[in-house]
Amino acid sequence: MEGVIASAEDPLDERCLAYADDESPCYVPEGLAARYAIRLATSHGQRNAASYLIRKLYQWRGYSTDIVREDPTGVVLVASDERGVVATVTVGFDSTHGMAVESLYPDEVAQLRGGGARLCEFTRLAVDRTGQSMELLAMLLHVAYLYARRVHGATHLLAEVNPRHVRFYMRMLGFEVAGPQRMCRRVDAPAVLIALWLDHAEEQIALYGGHMELAQTVRSLYPLFFSPSEEDGIARRLFGQEPSGRSHAGSPQPVIA
Question: Which residues contact 1 (CB under 8 A, 6 or more apart)?
């Protein structure tokens, strides 16, 4: 996941554009000290704000910022507060144009695709550090998961992450290593391909989603996800999707390298 949780106390003091008066559909999570609105970035201004946040945080971490160039095939999600856009992730899908991770891991993607997996990928993840950055990260990832799972029927999620972040995603979300470390020229940094079987994510959300009180005892981000009972409302509000069956049980499990 070409992403990073970076400090707001960086050399770039400009702010991303705020969308407090934006009338596009959004979901406002409850139970947080600050008010965040999560939405699909459908306007040019929203996408520009997401790109600015990525550029700011990637530059602060020393990554190349070429990655912020807009991908017309990706769906961008943003979370904003009164300051502006504070978190973003792009959800991409397998298509005739290929996938971003495929440029670095063509054989691994082909193996999963050949096994019948319906692939999606999360790229351009950035979360400005706040007092509740882990909660915000979990909620944004849950909405991205819902879009991939319920709108597109994805069975497997792929992401490229910096090697030092691999253990976090494995321990906290259940990812597995799916490809060896290689140099990603898009961000000019090393990367490892990781994969998440979305049946596993669905099971963990059913067990822990909405139980923030368990976050201190369960080594997982899933207690910070929304509860399963909230999923229909989120999907209806953000994606215009009526309630439907959630489970995609029986989808093929990947052969993880």
Answer: 89, 122, 123, 125, 159, 160, 161, 165, 169, 194
